[in-house]
Design brief:
By secondary structure, the protein is mainly α. About 85% of the residues lie in helices and about 0% in strands. The protein has one domain (about 1-65).
């Protein structure tokens, strides 16, 4: 009886913790890297720069496009 209880508690408790922590860490890291890659590339580009400003301003979108 003791062996059965110890095995059931140790088996699911040990693999359950590392298994959740391992996939949970690389998942958010990959998402952050993927999002940071396109964001950094769009910042130095002159095209996405005015587009972002126009989207934030909304009203400045029309005059901004005309001025360009």
């Amino acid at each position: 009886m003791n062996a059965g209880k110890v095995q059931k508690r140790k088996a699911p408790a040990k693999p359950a913790k590392p298994a959740h922590v391992k996939p949970a860490k690389p998942t958010p890291v990959s998402v952050k890297i993927a999002k940071a890659a396109p964001v950094k590339t769009a910042k130095p580009v002159p095209k996405p720069a005015p587009i972002k400003n126009a989207k934030l301003a909304g009203k400045s979108k029309q005059p901004s496009t005309n001025t360009d």
